[in-house]
Amino acid sequence: MKVLVATQKPFAAAAVNGIREILEAAGHDVVLLEKYAAQEELTAAVANVEGLIVRSDKVTAEVIAAAPKLKIVVRAGAGFDNVDLAAASARGIVVMNTPGQNSNAVAELAVAMMIYMARTQFTPATGSEISGKTLGIQAFGNVGRLVGAKAKALGMKVKAIDPFLKEEQIEAGGAEPASTLKDLYATSDFVSIHIPATPQTIGSIGYTLISSMPKGATLVNTARKEVIDEAGLEKALEERPDLKYITDVAPDNYAVLKEKFGLRVFATPKKMGAQTAEANLNAGLAAARQIADYFATGNTRFQVNR
What we know:
Blueprint: E1 2-7, H1 13-25, E2 29-34, H2 39-45, E3 51-54, H3 61-65, E4 72-75, H4 85-90, E5 94-97, H5 103-118, E6 134-138, H6 142-153, E7 157-161, H7 167-172, E8 176-177, H8 181-186, E9 190-193, H9 207-211, E10 218-221, H10 230-239, E11 244-247, H11 254-261, E12 265-267, H12 277-297
Parallel strand pairs: 1-2, 1-3, 3-4, 4-5, 6-7, 6-9, 7-8, 9-10, 10-11, 11-12
């Protein structure tokens, strides 16, 4: 089988070498498409491949239509909203992610973001400490649990909510269950968001939730920008000069927010949750192993489309 590794933002050399070793040892050919400038290059490159590994690259319906032999796509990372699942499913193509491989990198970033905003973006202004504060975690999966553990080690009280977990599961993960999402926001000095972008979550975090946060609270988003109602965020920040927002994916209205609110908002230059050498290597190797296992045994454990 021929497997294409298509990355506008390439894997580290160690990860590329590891991917190649895993797949070639399993009898597959590896083709690289790195730092490509146009989507059309990806569309052309998939014409004769059975497997595809991507990072944040857009696997659109057009890409899928141009890949008649394609059997599996693996997104090296947890999120998979960059892959057109409906188009893949219609063709019987398996789509997988690599959950957990980037989790520690994202969790460390979330904690760093809390400290960064608590210390007024490292300016000379007087800041505050996060020890003794309450952290609310929205979605208590791989990343959320790691964020909670690191926050507790720093002396924070941790609360969490997750619609897919029972209260006892949240307690077993080391957090106090919040009764409702409104309760989580209303009682947390920091809220860290870890929900995916789905039809149910897009635009779900807006004025009502944000404005209910305690005095001096900070909202931390290492998930997707689409889950934030940007107009609602702007309104809440206007009415509440004590609130702060930090994200590793800039909102569409970031220039406006920055001009209006200065040090109360911050967005990293690019999405960087998984931008560590360790996460880069872990996700790439996991993607390669999953493709090799799928072709060898039919294992679809991490399939995200049905």
